[in-house]
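Schema walk-through. Below, the input block comes first and the output block second. Nothing else is stored per chain. Lengths vary across the set, and this one has 274 residues.
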Amino acid sequence: MNALKKLLSGLFSRAPASLEQIEQMLLEAHRAGVLEQPELELLQGALQAPTRQVREIMVPRPSMAVIQLGSGLHEIAERIEQHGHSRYPVVGDNLDDIRGLLLAKDVLRAMHRNDSLPSLHKAHKVPETMRLDTMLNQFRESHNHMAIVVDEYGGVSGLITIEDVLEQIVGNIQDEHDSASQEMEAVGELSDGSHIVKASITLIELKKKLGIQLDGAEDEYETLGGFLLHRFGRVPVNGERLVEENCIYEIVDASERKIQSVRLHSKEQPAETQ
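--- output ---
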């Protein structure tokens, strides 16, 4: 999968290409031995028309790492070191007041040269309902790698990067390639009776598999990860816990941008036991 991701990143950082040209590149990669036949077929299918929408994979508003307008160069550099991203929205009065995007490399270059604060790049805005295939094409054609996601009223609901979209496509390929095993891995039972659950599991599926029902949550959130993000108000770190009704949700694996997996214990179970 790493080879696939590197290949995709290379493709979409180049000048705009037609779907036919992209497919030709994939065929060349297959002939060169970079892609196996099953991977080639799945990747070709994934590039055709992903039907998921931007709002399903975006970094939600509470988890956005932003820079306040008027911040000094050294203050911005500290924030970049803290979060490690390559691009940051710059905000004015509030999160709905996006003034532009600041690139980490521009800031580091300015510091090295003792220059003033670099100019902001235009922040492109996209609707929550945009399909991922359309979003990917926009990234490729505009050479922008980040977009601000807005709701129907124009308010900022999150952000999305080309990496998010590529990871989603690669993830979909992985799910199709190992469909039987992936279905089993969505929920895994440990020896103490607790469960390791993928954060991407839907609340409906969680109820079906484990009998866990979060009253009212199914109307507001699609996945367990989305539910937990809103309860924490941010992306939690590994080891953090949330007690909800008769269940303890312990974060097992989380990146800076999203929750990957969660351990579920009943209140009667010792949370420390693995």
